[in-house]
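A note on notation is needed here, since sequence and fold are reported together in a single record. The reader may check this reading against the record printed directly beneath this paragraph.
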Amino acid sequence: MKLWIPDREDEVTAAHVLGALNLQAPGLEAVRAAMEQGNERQAGRALVRHFYERKDVRFLFDYRGQPLQKIDPNDSPYSWQSSLGLSGDLQEFMLYVGRKMMENVYVLPGKGRGEHALGARFETMPHFRFPEDLARSHRHTLDMFVRGQFFESLAVLYHEDGDPRVAEKFREVLQVFFKTYPLNVEHGGPDTGRFMTSEDRDVMSAGWLTIVLLSLFYTELPYTLPEDETFDLLRHIWFYAMQFRRFDGDRFRSHNHHMFERGLVPFILSLLLPEFPEIAAMREHGREVVSRHVHEDFGSHGQYSEHSIAYWSGAAIGEMLSRGMSLGNLNGVPMLDEEGTRNVDRSLFALAMASAPGERFPTLGDNRGPMIDPILSLGVRMTGNETCKQLLRLRQGEEGTGPEVLDFCDNVTGFVTSRNRWGADGNFFLMSLKENCGYSGHNHMDMLSLFIHLRGEELIGEPYTGKLYHTVRHASEHRGFMYNMSSHNTVLAYGEPIQPDRCYANKWGVLRPDVKLEEQEIAPDYLYLRARHDAYTHCSHQRAVLFVREKGWWIRDALLRGNRQEADHRQRWFFTPGTALTQLSSHALLVEGSRSRMLMAWQESPRFSLELWRPDFLCPEIFPSVDALGMALDVHFGIHPKSDSLIVPLQLLLLDVTGRELPEEAELSALFKEAPDLSHAQLSAQITAL
């Protein structure tokens, strides 16, 4: 018999749900007895009691039972969908979200992402038609709202003191939600990414909503409803879960949406709803899909196919894999084989090595860098990763100096990081370099882009990506700028990116050219590396970095065959907002943070100039005021195209001058003159002596 998958939420009846149960399953005796008596209402109530009492199906948390237990989501942030865009104390944030929902105001996940008034009678609920509204506004508000994270926040708020007003608000919002957003499947094929376009409802959002609603059954909140209404909530959950049977025969596609929608959601639902045979049947196929993704997307070097720290750590591992692996282990059904687990463990090691001194990862790729400690906690929980364990202990103030290794350089994984020591006051940098990046939906044209932290303070980074990612319109100049080279700390040959911004303004995915790692040397006092990319086709950008651990950085940018045109090249830097800049001379700049000072000095050149500017074209659409923007710097350099030299070089020294006098210009001039003839060890010693 062909499996019936309902297309309309309002088509589903109690008979459909109860008829889909395996009535011989342990714990369903009362349901079976009621069904044998023809009493559907009593059977539904018995099913609710079964969900309240069952112990053999374990979730990531369990707050069922009286007296009420207060919930602290900080114990395991990624057990909650509200951790999306995690920024600070999750319990505090979720209580705030719950209290605002009591006022009919929706707060988007992540601190400071925005609020949406739903109206006194819910007359201003968010809506978005795809694709009609795509060029006019961002779909983010509706997409987040229909994932239902705010239900979790109401549960956390209710568990604070059992306020019956919270339970009543939950009941009200639940009714309005299903009335306003009934899922009527318009696109039901196995390859669909969106169930609806008349009201934007994609498969990923439907999956998250299903998991969020199921998670509520491990709190007391849904059991405050009249039993018939609690059963009705199970009816909606069954409808959503059945939608994922549409993907039984779908083709494999290499991106994290597919892993989540076609693998993780079916696997998780099969664990959490084993009473329904047609849902439990998704287990093996779901596990196979996830396993293939992990084997193909998480390599033996620790690399992930999406060259974006936020999507690698926060999405693929934090939101997705950690749930499936943890739930599988809790319920005695391991999700991955040994090789897959080993690849994930190596990936967690690489992320530990990318941990900056502050609370967040660098913003490499799409989205803002996620919070570090919750990811390290996942490393401990998921695979027992020793590096994550050591680093987490150090960051949380326990004894120890952190991991022994300070450097990570792997152009398969996609970056180099180094530091002088682990700790909140360390010097740190990250540079983007990756071979075989492929077609990555969350990657950027950020070849050789640098992030610089001095004494634990980020002075140079990519501070606008997170805000841009969540607010840019498709096909807009801002979106093109975000993905293109223009928004990164790299070199623009002849002052222009390889392709104009418009090439990246619409659709997803960036085919990022390779970066070749040409040389590296690691010593106790320094790290040296040289890498290049040939993406311009008419010239090659080579960047050499000598990191003198206790003093700063020496950088040599060279454009090979960079003398073809009259136009100057641009070395571009974006400074963290709040950083103060003082131009000391035609070739020197003082950079001051809240607790550190850095001298930027360049070798003198006849065609050289510094141009300080702000990316004010981001205002007012992205940022309401230029006050939120930091400074940017373009360093113009070049030689005459008739010159015999095929190489256009630029030498830069970034020197820690915190609490000390600036070096004399003569010392700097001598250093720049001697640098090309010195070994890395000699140059490191010279910089240390300044």
Summary: The first strand starts at residue 105 and ends at 107. The chain has a mean pLDDT of 94. The longest helix spans residues 309-330.
